[in-house]
Amino acid sequence: MFSYEQLEKYNETDVEIYRYVINNMDRVGYMSIRELAHELHVSTSTILRFCLKNGFEGYRDFKRALKSEQQQLTTYEPKSDVSELAHFFAKTNSSAYERKLMPALTYLRRATLVIFVGIGSSGSLARYAARCFTNAGKVAFGLEDSNYPVNTFEIHDTVVFALSESGETPELIALVQHFQ
User: Could you give phi then psi for residue 122, rounded to 5 degrees?
Assistant: First the structure.
């Protein structure tokens, strides 16, 4: 319903509307435009512009698509080719796995800046991850340029995620070494 390209173009108000809609999908589908505007402390025109910016003809069209999206999410049946994903979740749903993750989560919670780095398609994923973290309220930056002057970042209290399919990209390895 909301594409990454659309999310990239959002201003601060659009991000607030988006967050509210995603977190209250079941309620928004039944709210009038005035009720939604009142909840978000914006005008009805702002809500209408948000709908138009996302490719809907108006608020009614937006609500119809939202209800359809919610119905698809609740009636989706996994296909048989997701067995590996199910196996992954089964393995990671353990207290031992959680204990291994706790130190990383502690660093992440304390971080004042989160940097995602990647080259090529991993760079696109790095930008997307940074956007998701930013939407969650964390200061995050997606870096896909291996020549970016990383010495401009304050490294204290910074967490860096290096994303790579192969783990052998020379540019990415050099970039990560600058953060060490």
Answer: -65, -30
